[in-house]
């Protein structure tokens, strides 16, 4: 997907063109590794790193301004999404930056042919051995191992750049990124095998009635497509519009199995089973598509079955992004360390027509991702939003904490070198340009205790959240959790959906799966249905949702007011009237939302 701009750039830059007075290195970034990582050995000098260099996106502020205008339902430009080319123009680096970085690379013998450039030219990638990277960045790489998990990675805790390059380079990875691909967590909370025989609906106890909605009593202990349509007021809605689409991202070698999808459809979506409906598979950076039943993934199957089952017959795509193979330090095999969000974002941003609603059920503790990297990945999500894509992300399964039940592994301790106790928000949920989805359970609904919620330590609270979040903060008893969270931070989640007892088929067997891993694809299914409503009326798709959700669409949510999300040795926050840091604005009332957005 990288476009070579070789012909467009001056190739005659000689080594001497890089003035020596500017070669003095100055530290660009310095981190304390997260708890658990220790140095194992110096990095093998011939180990090849896939280095990514991020050049400043000179006009990102303008992109952000466009994004907020076109996502504000009261603005005259609402829905006027930007084209791929418009976005690329706005994030392109200044020519001075491109020139200075190209010169610097040439001074180290790196030729234009060796450099991959993103379509906008804001990311460069090159594969070079550790020995050369160490010289260029005036640093020393080591093999680090994680005490608990036994994983190994090649990283450094600081790197430097010639003084004159600081303004032309925003970040370089892999350097200080200790939140590795392998650490990226699927947000599944529990899996239990259940009876694969379908419960005939006739034998279910009578329906539960609440606010005029009839919900089958079985939905209190087993969530199916029918249950979600009942609970969220979408019974009988069948999408018909042309041009709609929905996508699921997969990582960690999770395989979405087509035979399991068919079994699921036979169980829960007969109309899809009748036509043998399936999804398109797209491999990102070498992601594989095993259809071997014993390699079917619980996460991937949950995601595709519910997102695609809810939105059938909307065209659906599963994106599998490859992970890096485990690095074996003592063998010293050359290995490529990919960074998951950027690999996926590169691909998606290069794609001429990304799916209009995309769900991601993976994440990590915000603090394990370097801030510079988180900001840049978040800027990539903004770019997709500007193009009319709605991005949903699970808010995490640790309540206000990191979900780690073992206090020995330093739950809720900051890795800023100060070892403070602090709530741990999740990333990418904490990016203000995605819609973070928390979890509920039962009917009538209440918050589920693991629902990830809280406040970013990196991202300021976006304006669209001001009213809702200030109301919530004002209601907190004075001094609550002082020092444990950032009152000015982007608050999560934005919304919620059911998150337990999802009836999923994996390897031909039925399971109950729970986690905000279930909430995000479920919410995304309804977003695809809302897009259908808009497209059918000739309106543009919803795109970046949050400014709409917190304003015009606020009344289209069921407010959840029972439950809390414990973590870090505290009871966490309470679900309250209005927005709260457990279930956000609440769960969707599709019927109401459809009226509000069409
Ligand atoms: C669903 O289960 C929850 C938890 O057991 C219970 O509080 C609630 O009353 C049940 N709902 C109904 C309608 O039975
Ligand atoms: C359904 O798809 C499967 C797998 O691709 C194929 O083997 C089967 O023949 C299809 N059945 C129908 C009815 O199209
Ligand atoms: C399917 O996967 C399992 C587990 O990885 C493996 O043992 C088995 O050999 C595979 N079967 C085929 C036909 O490849
Ligand atoms: C923080 O914890 C780490 C690991 O336990 C320890 O090495 C370090 O000295 C501590 N730092 C402070 C400032 O307490
Ligand atoms: C949550 O609600 C309980 C019971 O009303 C109250 O005692 C507690 O202070 C509340 N906690 C927070 C963080 O608001």
From TrEMBL:
<keyword id="KW-0865">Zymogen</keyword>
<feature type="domain" description="Peptidase S53">
    <location>
        <begin position="222"/>
        <end position="598"/>
    </location>
</feature>
<comment type="function">
    <text>Secreted tripeptidyl-peptidase which degrades proteins at acidic pHs and is involved in virulence.</text>
</comment>
<dbReference type="InterPro" id="IPR015366">
    <property type="entry name" value="S53_propep"/>
</dbReference>
<dbReference type="GO" id="GO:0006508">
    <property type="term" value="P:proteolysis"/>
</dbReference>
<dbReference type="InterPro" id="IPR036852">
    <property type="entry name" value="Peptidase_S8/S53_dom_sf"/>
</dbReference>
<dbReference type="GO" id="GO:0005576">
    <property type="term" value="C:extracellular region"/>
</dbReference>
<dbReference type="InterPro" id="IPR023828">
    <property type="entry name" value="Peptidase_S8_Ser-AS"/>
</dbReference>
<dbReference type="Pfam" id="PF09286">
    <property type="entry name" value="Pro-kuma_activ"/>
</dbReference>
<feature type="active site" description="Charge relay system">
    <location>
        <position position="299"/>
    </location>
</feature>
<keyword id="KW-0964">Secreted</keyword>
<keyword id="KW-0325">Glycoprotein</keyword>
<feature type="active site" description="Charge relay system">
    <location>
        <position position="517"/>
    </location>
</feature>
<keyword id="KW-0843">Virulence</keyword>
<feature type="active site" description="Charge relay system">
    <location>
        <position position="303"/>
    </location>
</feature>
<dbReference type="GO" id="GO:0004252">
    <property type="term" value="F:serine-type endopeptidase activity"/>
</dbReference>
<keyword id="KW-0378">Hydrolase</keyword>
<feature type="signal peptide">
    <location>
        <begin position="1"/>
        <end position="17"/>
    </location>
</feature>
<feature type="binding site">
    <location>
        <position position="578"/>
    </location>
    <ligand>
        <name>Ca(2+)</name>
    </ligand>
</feature>
<keyword id="KW-0479">Metal-binding</keyword>
<dbReference type="GO" id="GO:0046872">
    <property type="term" value="F:metal ion binding"/>
</dbReference>
<keyword id="KW-0720">Serine protease</keyword>
<keyword id="KW-0106">Calcium</keyword>
<keyword id="KW-0732">Signal</keyword>
<feature type="binding site">
    <location>
        <position position="560"/>
    </location>
    <ligand>
        <name>Ca(2+)</name>
    </ligand>
</feature>
<dbReference type="InterPro" id="IPR030400">
    <property type="entry name" value="Sedolisin_dom"/>
</dbReference>
<dbReference type="GO" id="GO:0008240">
    <property type="term" value="F:tripeptidyl-peptidase activity"/>
</dbReference>
<keyword id="KW-0645">Protease</keyword>
<feature type="binding site">
    <location>
        <position position="559"/>
    </location>
    <ligand>
        <name>Ca(2+)</name>
    </ligand>
</feature>
<dbReference type="InterPro" id="IPR050819">
    <property type="entry name" value="Tripeptidyl-peptidase_I"/>
</dbReference>
<protein>
    <recommendedName>
        <fullName>tripeptidyl-peptidase II</fullName>
        <ecNumber>3.4.14.10</ecNumber>
    </recommendedName>
</protein>
<feature type="binding site">
    <location>
        <position position="580"/>
    </location>
    <ligand>
        <name>Ca(2+)</name>
    </ligand>
</feature>
């Amino acid at each position: 997907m990288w476009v070579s701009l070789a012909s467009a750039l001056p190739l005659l830059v000689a080594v001497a063109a890089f003035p020596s007075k500017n070669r003095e290195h100055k530290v660009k970034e310095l981190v304390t590794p997260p708890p658990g990582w220790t140095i194992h050995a110096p990095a093998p000098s011939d180990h090849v790193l896939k280095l990514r260099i991020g050049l400043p996106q000179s006009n990102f502020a303008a992109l952000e301004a466009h994004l907020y205008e076109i996502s504000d339902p009261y603005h005259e430009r609402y829905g006027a999404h930007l084209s791929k080319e418009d976005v690329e123009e706005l994030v392109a680096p200044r020519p001075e930056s491109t020139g200075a970085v190209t010169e610097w690379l040439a001074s180290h013998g790196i030729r234009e042919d060796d450099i991959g450039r993103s379509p906008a030219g804001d990311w460069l990638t090159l594969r070079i051995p550790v020995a050369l990277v160490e010289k260029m960045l005036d640093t020393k790489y080591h093999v680090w191992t994680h005490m608990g998990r036994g994983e190994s990675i090649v990283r450094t805790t600081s790197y430097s750049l010639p003084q004159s390059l600081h303004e032309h380079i925003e970040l370089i990875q892999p350097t200080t990124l200790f939140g590795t691909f392998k650490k990226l967590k699927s947000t599944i909370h529990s899996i239990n095998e259940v009876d694969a025989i379908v419960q005939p609906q006739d034998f279910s106890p009578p329906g539960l009635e609440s606010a005029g909605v009839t919900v089958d009593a079985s939905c209190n202990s087993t969530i199916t497509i029918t249950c979600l349509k009942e609970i969220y007021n979408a019974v009988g809605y069948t999408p018909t519009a042309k041009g709609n689409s929905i996508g699921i991202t997969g990582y960690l070698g999770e395989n979405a199995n087509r035979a399991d999808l068919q079994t699921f459809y036979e169980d829960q979506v007969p109309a899809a089973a009748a036509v043998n409906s399936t999804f398109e598979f797209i491999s990102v950076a070498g992601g594989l598509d095993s259809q071997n039943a014993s390699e079917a993934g619980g996460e991937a199957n949950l995601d595709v079955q519910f997102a695609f089952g809810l939105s059938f017959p909307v065209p659906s795509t599963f994106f599998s992004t490859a992970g890096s193979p485990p690095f074996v330090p003592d063998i010293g095999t050359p290995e490529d360390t990919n960074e998951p969000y950027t690999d996926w974002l590169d691909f998606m941003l290069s794609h001429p027509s990304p799916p209009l609603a995309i769900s991601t059920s993976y994440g990590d503790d915000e603090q394990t991702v370097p801030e510079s990297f988180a900001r840049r990945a978040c800027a990539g999500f903004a770019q997709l939003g500007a193009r009319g894509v709605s991005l949903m992300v699970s808010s995490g399964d640790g309540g206000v904490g990191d979900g780690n039940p073992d206090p020995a592994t330093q739950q809720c301790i900051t890795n800023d070198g100060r070892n403070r106790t602090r709530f741990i928000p999740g990333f990418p949920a904490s990016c203000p340009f995605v819609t973070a989805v928390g979890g509920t359970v039962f009917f009538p609904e209440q918050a589920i205790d693991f629902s990830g919620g809280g406040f970013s330590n990196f991202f300021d609270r976006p304006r669209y959240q001001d009213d809702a979040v200030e109301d919530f903060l004002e209601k907190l008893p004075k001094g609550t959790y002082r020092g444990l969270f950032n009152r000015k931070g982007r608050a999560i989640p934005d919304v919620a959906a059911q998150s337990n007892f999802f009836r999923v088929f994996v390897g031909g067997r039925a399971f109950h799966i729970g986690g905000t891993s279930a909430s995000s694809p479920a919410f995304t299914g309804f977003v695809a249905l809302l897009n259908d409503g808009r497209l059918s009326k000739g309106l543009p798709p919803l795109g970046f949702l949050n400014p709409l959700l917190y304003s015009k669409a606020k009344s289209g949510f069921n407010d959840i007011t029972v439950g809390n999300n414990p973590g870090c040795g505290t009871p966490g926050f309470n679900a309250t009237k209005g927005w709260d840091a457990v279930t956000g604005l609440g769960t969707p009332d599709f019927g109401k939302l459809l009226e509000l957005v069409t």
